[in-house]
UniProtKB/TrEMBL annotation:
One of its GO terms (biological process) is signal transduction. The lineage of its organism: Bacteria, Candidatus Walliibacteriota. This is Methyl-accepting chemotaxis protein. One of its GO terms (cellular component) is membrane. Pfam families: MCPsignal.
Amino acid sequence: MASDLLDSTMGNMSISRKILIACGVFALPLAVVTFFLIQGLAGDIAFTTAEIHGTEALKSLSEACIATLTDSDSLTLSQSLLKADSALKSFGKFIEATRGSDIGQDASNQGGTEKLLMKISGVSRQIGERAAALKNGSDTELEAERHIILNLLREAVTICSRQSNLVLDPDLDSYYLMDVTCILMPSFHSSLMGFQNPSAGDPDSCEVLMKLVHIPAVMESLSASMENDGNFNGIAPGLKTSLEALIAELADFQSQWKEKLSEEQCRKLSELAADVWRKSIVQMEKLLLIRLAGFNGHRKKVFTASGISLLMAILVVYIVYLSIRKPLMSIAAAARRVSTGDMRTVLNENYNDEALSAVARGFNSVITNLGQMITGLNDGISSLRREAEEIRLISAEMVDESKTVKKMTFEVSRDGRELSKRLDLVSGSAEKVLTSINQVAVATEQMNSTIGEIARNAEMARGITSDAVVKAAQSLVKMSELGREAQSIGEVTEAITAISEQTKLLALNATIEAARAGEAGKGFAVVASEIKDLAQETAGATERINAKIGAVQRATFETIEGIQGISEVIARVNDIVGGIAAAIEEQSTTSSDIAYSVNQAAGGFREFSGTLEESSGYSGEIADRITRVDQASENLSKSGARLEKAADILGDLSGHMERSGRDRFNM
């Protein structure tokens, strides 16, 4: 689906538009790469610009720090502080102008920028207040303010160093130079202030002050800077000389640190440190300017290289376009010559591009085949002219034959109409006979249905009587079993009667014996009397049971005799119903045969009637068709005349085409 859409889209475009699309496709990745390169360089330029602004602020702040340590005139120090305040305000404006960028570690978000600006403003305000106070104050007040001013200036140096990326830049050209400029020298000046003015602490605590300034660490850091950084060795020889002098002075001071630092020593160390600081800042600014110029030059090179690459790509694409257009134009010119009838045109097939060679071969093949087709067409036109003459002769014969056919069809049509009338009469009589047979068939079907219903009822009655015979036999067996059980019960009651008689005799004997015993046998006499009464009641009950059982036995025997009679009657009824069912079955078969025969007769006569109707219809249809044949023969006669005329026109046209082919095409 996607490939079809692409083919249809590209197929509707001109070659020039396709070339433009190819240029766009080639230029797009180049533009993307250029964009990201420029973006990266823009970030580097912004980073370096921030570092340069920080270095410019450090110039004024370092001079103010140096003045705070060395100047004894409050007015001069006030002017230095005002310059430092102005530089700090300018740096604050730069930070505010770059709000929201990635410059500085505290300026990456809105809240950090606001806090930083407030911090810069606060330090600047304090420095300005100190400068104003010194401008109108005395030298005594100056000595008391030096520590406060120097701490404010160190804080300002820290802010500028951090927010201008000097202590954050991973690509900085000289870490040692940054360390000396932004960290070591401000700390060293603050330490010198402590040695120069012991009133800030205990006058006898020089050892503590010595530990605070870490003189050995300072010397080691300066020595490492000279050994490992080319900025101190060869690139900036003046800076190297100043560092060597400062290191020598620090070594001399280290050997005498237990004594109080003299004013001359402090002045000398201050001058050496100030010289190192100034030259370090100048060298740092020089490196940053070189770096910024390198970034700008790199950006120009990227723009230039991208432009040259784009122009070269356009030039290459244009050359390719011309190389494609030239053979295509030659093919178009050959096609125009062919369109004028020059079939002798042949294209050069030896192109460097296989596709163009294939197009040329295909074009030559088309021209060859087209020439063969035109030659064959001319031959066909000649044959067509000859055939047209033959068609004209045949059409004349068709006209004569169609007149004869018309005469014969008229006679056949007349006889067919007469036959159709007679078949219509026979068909009417057959329809009446078919109606009568259908009525007989319907009556026979109804009789057959009634006999079938009787046969089903007789069969059902036979099933019922058969079931009654079986049930009666089962009842007879059950009643016989009941008679035997009743007889068994009679035997049991006879045994009970005999037992009761024996019991009465025993009770009589017991009574006699009790009477003989006198008073001692009275209790036994009462028991014997009770047994006698019980035996008499048992005998009476047994007689009543015998009477009931006798009645049951008589009723059972009578029931058995009745069931036997019923069974015999049901058996005779079953035989009769079976005979009826068999007779009805035979009658049903006979009536079915009659109905089948009647239906067969009706079907045969219906088929005969249908055949008559079809024959009548066919005869009418034959008559109609003969009429149409008559009309067709008449039309054929007219068509023959038109065909004869068309054959004349075709002969003239084929002659004209034969002459035109010879005159127009050069084979």
